[in-house]
Design a protein that fits this description.
Blueprint lengths: L10 H19 L16 E8 L6 H5 L18 H7 L7 H17 L6 E9 L14 E9 L5 E8 L8 H10 L11 H17 L6 E9 L4 E9 L5 E8 L7 H8 L9 H14 L2 E8 L11 E10 L3 E11 L3 E11 L8 E13 L12 E16 L2 E16 L16 E16 L4 E16 L10 E13 L16 E11 L9 E15 L2 E14 L10 E2 L10 H17 L20 E4 L5 E7 L4 E14 L2 E13 L13 E10 L2 E10 L22 H4 L1 E2 L1 E2 L11 E7 L4
Parallel strand pairs: 1-3, 4-6, 7-9
Antiparallel strand pairs: 2-3, 5-6, 8-9, 10-11, 11-12, 12-13, 13-14, 14-15, 15-16, 16-17, 17-18, 18-19, 19-20, 20-24, 21-28, 22-23, 22-29, 24-25, 25-26, 26-27, 27-30
Length: 754
């Protein structure tokens, strides 16, 4: 039997088929999806909106997220020209009365779990909200509103809670005391919710296992009086024997991750008193190493033996992660600077098989100086290349793996650190750049589940300034050497009561940084700098968080900065005819204050200002010329405070509204609360895998920069005729830059502002 092969298909044939497919798809997109629904009971009609009425104890979002009946959503619904996208993106939700009935039961169950046993949930009404003639049975374009009505009624409250010990009262008073204190979530008069009920059980059990009672169990029961809306709770506690740790079994270690480093990191020693706190601390300590993809630490409890064994073995199951990684990236920076940037790096988390970490990375930027996001395309611009190379190495301290020795060295070339870009770059103006060499080495250790961090380091930096075209600079090189003692107590948590440093909803963060430069450790600067800060977070409702921050900075200078405390006539610092000694002193003080002074303003500070804009500014340069754009050189007293409301928008998007205030003054302990520099604004965040990506817009409030003044007065906008002040080398407030001609600042960053 023979077959006849079909003729070969030409390119025109396939092109014709593709064209027909596109025409068919376009035709499908230019019409909305076919709506099939019943004109009698609306079954199958499109749900346009679901509304909850009468709910006070449970927010709308919580109810709507847990029911199947939902509104139709899509970005291009009903737009014919992009109907193809509409058809692909819009998920049409159809009305089903049987689904709605089950949803009403779900809502009633939610209320019961919240303690509202008498709540009545019903469908208020299901009606069409599209335009249609009265009595019409045409349902082709029908759109429905589904309304769920809740009658909450009074909640059931706790009438009392008692603890019993069916197996007999424990001999140790501390066990009874711990169990009694742990039931604080079931106080008389509290709403009797399942969450409180279960939390009290777990808290009592956890309090006892923390004390060494590994087999402790709590069996709760409740008698609910629906007539009087009162619940009486009984918590039956069986404690079991006081236990100690047994052998620790490590499973899953590879040759690259040494047992002799991991085992001490656990902090679990055989024959020591059993405690779930120690197990939790071990999990946190192992996660801090950053070399494991999964960690599981479980006690091996054998509750079938009689009597119960008092020695509890521990099984640690580990899954090592990829220890070596390469980083490559590029991006565009728009804000106080306009630049393209790239990064390339490599790191290994156990370079010599001792859990030591080695990392090297190089960064490059091309800056369009002095453009900002609001001045792109205006005035003279210079392309400034920036390059930096950083090498880091850290080693867990032998015998104490929770302590770390570290060293970091970095070399860079680019714009001067803390340089405030001018609004306009004059044709004759030089662009200040520097070579900067930095080294940091020290010791750090964590305590209390890694919530407390202590660090002591020695820091050394050498800077050599010059102009972009390698012309001679009037500033001299600087060597700064200082000791840095840093302490941080992090008590931030999320809604699940877990430690969370990225998206906290409650708790506090306390930190303090003490730096001592000179005084026997060398360098050109002798000073003492201290910077304490408090951050706090409070959960107001599901997804709503109120966050605040207050910080202070003080810089005591011992051998520099004094020439800036007085008015220096400009003629004293002239390049020709001036006093060279005086000029050298002034330039040295300016250079050291620029490196060691205090600043405020920017995406993680006062968001109505650009980076480091709030600070004393140098009004006249060393040539005796009045600067159109004074350079910020830092001050010796700073205070900052912020208040921020974070709220959900949709999905991975959240929003914030904020108020920031701060000031930096030139004198030591000179707190100027009449210079609050208040800015307010709003922003959005997108929850990405690398952290929240945020955009903030801060607006400076008139008359609240300097109390009673419409704007910050400076020599650059002086209209009073007091030119004598601007003819001397004085420190000035400095006029902040505008964005798009308005008193505001736009910033884009990764991570929360605080």
């Amino acid at each position: 039997m023979s077959t006849i092969a079909p003729p070969p298909r030409s390119g025109h044939f396939w092109a014709a088929r593709g064209l027909l497919a596109l025409v068919g798809l376009a035709g499908l997109g230019c019409t909305t999806q076919q709506v099939v629904c019943s004109p009698v009971d609306h079954s199958g009609c499109v749900i346009d909106e679901v509304r909850v009425v009468g709910n006070r104890a449970v927010p709308d979002d919580e109810i709507l997220s847990r029911i199947a009946t939902g509104p139709t959503g899509g970005s291009f619904e009903g737009v014919p020209l992009v109907g193809v996208i509409d058809a692909l993106t819009v998920q049409y939700e159809r009305f089903d009365r049987f689904v709605l009935e089950r949803d009403l039961e779900r809502v009633a169950r939610i209320y019961r779990a919240k303690g509202y046993y008498n709540a009545v949930v019903r469908a208020g009404r299901v009606r069409r909200i599209d335009a249609h003639p009265a009595g019409s049975t045409e349902v082709k374009n029908a759109r429905l509103l589904v309304e769920i009505v809740v009658e909450e009624g009074p909640p059931v409250v706790v009438g009392g809670a008692r603890i019993t010990f069916p197996g007999g009262m424990p001999k140790e008073p501390r066990a009874v005391l711990a169990a009694t204190k742990a039931k604080h979530d079931l106080q008389k008069g509290d709403v009797f919710s399942e969450e409180r009920y279960e939390r009290a059980r777990l808290q009592i059990q956890r309090a006892l296992t923390d004390l060494g009672y590994a087999y402790a169990k709590v069996e709760p029961s409740a008698t609910v009086d629906l007539v009087n809306n009162v619940a009486v709770v009984e918590l039956a506690v069986s404690i079991g024997p006081l236990c100690t740790f047994g052998k620790v079994e490590l499973i899953g270690l590879e040759q690259r991750v040494p047992d002799w480093q991991v085992r001490p990191m656990l902090g679990i020693v055989e024959d020591e008193e059993y405690s779930t706190k120690k197990i939790e601390a071990a999990e946190v300590a192992l996660s801090e190493l950053g070399v494991f993809g999964a960690i599981s630490i479980e006690p091996v409890l054998d509750d079938q033996q009689v009597p119960l064994p008092t020695k509890v073995p521990v099984r640690v199951v580990l899954q090592p992660a990829n220890l070596a990684s390469v980083r490559l990236g590029a991006g565009v920076e728009l804000g106080d600077q306009v630049a393209v940037r790239g990064i390339a790096g490599w790191q290994h988390r156990s370079a010599t098989r001792t859990l030591d970490r080695f990392a090297i990375d190089g960064r490059a930027r091309g800056i369009a100086h002095p453009w900002r996001i609001s001045t792109i395309g205006t005035g003279r611009v210079e392309f400034v290349p920036e390059l930096s190379v950083r090498v880091q190495y850290s080693l867990p301290f032998p015998g104490d793996p929770r302590a770390t020795l570290f060293i970091q060295t970095q070399g860079s070339y680019g714009l001067e650190r803390n340089h405030d870009p001018p609004r306009v770059l004059d044709e004759a103006a030089d662009v200040p750049v520097e070579v900067l060499l930095e080294n940091r080495q020290g010791y750090q250790r964590t305590f209390f589940l890694s919530r407390l961090l202590l660090s002591l380091s020695h820091n050394l930096s050498f800077s050599y300034p010059f102009s972009l075209y390698f012309s001679e600079s009037s500033a001299s090189s600087l060597l700064i050497s200082y000791l840095d003692l840093f302490a941080q107590l992090d008590l931030r948590e999320n809604d699940d009561n877990r430690y969370d440093r990225v998206r906290p909803t409650k708790g506090v963060l306390l930190s303090a940084d003490l730096q001592v430069a000179g005084f026997g450790i060398g360098g050109d600067a002798r000073d003492v700098k201290i910077q304490p800060e408090l951050r706090w977070y409070a959960s107001l409702a599901k997804g709503f968080v109120l966050a605040g921050r207050v910080g202070v900075g003080l810089l005591y200078t011992d051998n520099y900065g004094f020439t800036l405390d007085e008015i220096v006539p400009a003629r004293d610092v002239l390049a020709e005819g001036g006093d060279p000694t005086r000029r050298t002193e002034v330039n040295r003080d300016v250079g050291l204050m620029t490196k060691r002074g205090l600043f405020s303003g920017g995406p993680s500070s006062n968001r109505g200002y650009g980076f480091n804009e709030i600070a004393p500014h140098r009004v006249v340069d060393d040539e005796g010329l009045r600067l159109a754009d004074p350079d910020a050189i830092g001050g010796r007293t700073r205070w900052e405070t912020s208040l921020e409301l974070r709220f959900p928008i949709r999905g991975s998007w959240t929003g914030v509204s904020f108020i920031d205030a701060s000031d930096v003054s030139p004198g030591f302990a000179e707190f100027r609360f009449d210079h609050p520099h208040v800015s307010t604004g709003a922003g959005v965040r997108y929850d990405s895998p690398i952290g929240p990506i945020r955009l903030d817009l801060g607006v400076r409030v008139p008359y609240l920069q300097v109390i009673g003044e419409p704007e910050v007065e400076s020599c650059t906008n002086d209209t009073t005729g007091a030119e004598w002040a601007c003819k001397a080398l004085v420190l000035d407030e400095g006029k902040p830059a505008d964005s798009f001609g308005l008193p505001m600042a736009l910033s884009i960053a990764i991570g929360n502002a605080f």
